[in-house]
Amino acid sequence: MLDAAIAVPIGPEARYEQAQSISLAFVAALQVLPPRQLAVLILRDVLGFHASEVASMLESTVESANSALKRARAGLQRRWVPNAEHAAPVGEVSRAEAAIVAKFAEAYGAGDLDALVALLTDDVFMSMPPMPLEYRGREIVARFFLLVFRANRRFALVPTRANGQPAFGAYLRTSDGPFPGVGLVVLTLHGERISAMSRFDGSVLPWFGLPASLPGPRAITSCGALPA
Predict the structure, then answer these.
(1) Among 30, 62, 116, 175, which one is most buried in terms of CB atoms within 10 A?
(2) Domain residues for 56?
(3) pLDDT tens digits for range 177-187
(4) Residues 112 and 169 in one domain
(5) Does position 66 have pLDDT exceeding 80, yes or no?
(6) Measuring CA to CA, which residue among 32, 43, 15, 44 is closest to residue 162?
(7) Do the domain assignments include residue 46?
(8) Claim to verify: residue 176 and residue 92 sit in the same structural domain
(9) One domain for residues 168 and 74
(10) Cα dihedral angle (79, 142, 168, 152), rounded to 10 degrees?
């Protein structure tokens, strides 16, 4: 049901604006809604379909669709508490941002823990919504990434933006077959360091115009290299 709702086509300009402006707190709240409520909310409040159209798509009644929308909005109201402390304004990408984002992508893709940790502020904050897991401080975040890179796991990163902030879709590299999308990592910058990171699971990737998986090594012939 949710896949069908997300798959409703929207134009490239609308998709770009969606990825730029969608609130991360909103995405986190969406992940805990029941499937039907989530589908109705996406179709009505994100994609702009009328109640009768949504009812037809979901093989339901207008009354049922409106009821699901009301419950979904109430659920968001209870859970959606934006974290202003780590919010970042939307704006053009500066040279400083481009430089630190490039260093992060290189370190993350190579599994270089030391290089990645060197980019973090001392009090860096990391969250993993909707799970109630939070980490604060360079040392404990370093321990988390030590687990991420365990067993020589490596990732391909595809850049995007979320909430006006630099972000990456993370795809687990495999020796055979497609690279599955495992998460969305969103960065908050402070000066020339990363002060906060939010990691969402792979289910949110389509919201930011990213594929669920990348072609595996055997599918890459003359098409060029995968993102590092």
Answers:
(1) 30
(2) 2-82
(3) 899 999 999 99
(4) yes
(5) yes
(6) 15
(7) yes
(8) yes
(9) no
(10) -130
Domain end position, chosen among 33, 65, 82 = 82
Question: pLDDT for 108-164, tens place per residue?
Answer: 999 999 999 999 999 999 998 878 789 999 999 999 999 999 989 999 999 988 878
| Residue that is written with structure tokens 């993350």 in the block | 108
Least confident of 3-7, 62-66, 76-80, 179-183: 3-7
Q: Which CATH number does the domain housing residue 16 bear? A: 1.10.10.10
How far is the C-alpha of 200 from the C-alpha of 192, rounded, in Å?
24
- Residues 75, 94, single domain; the answer is no
d(Cα 2, Cα 42) in Å, to the nearest integer?
9
In this structure, is residue 183 part of a structural domain? yes
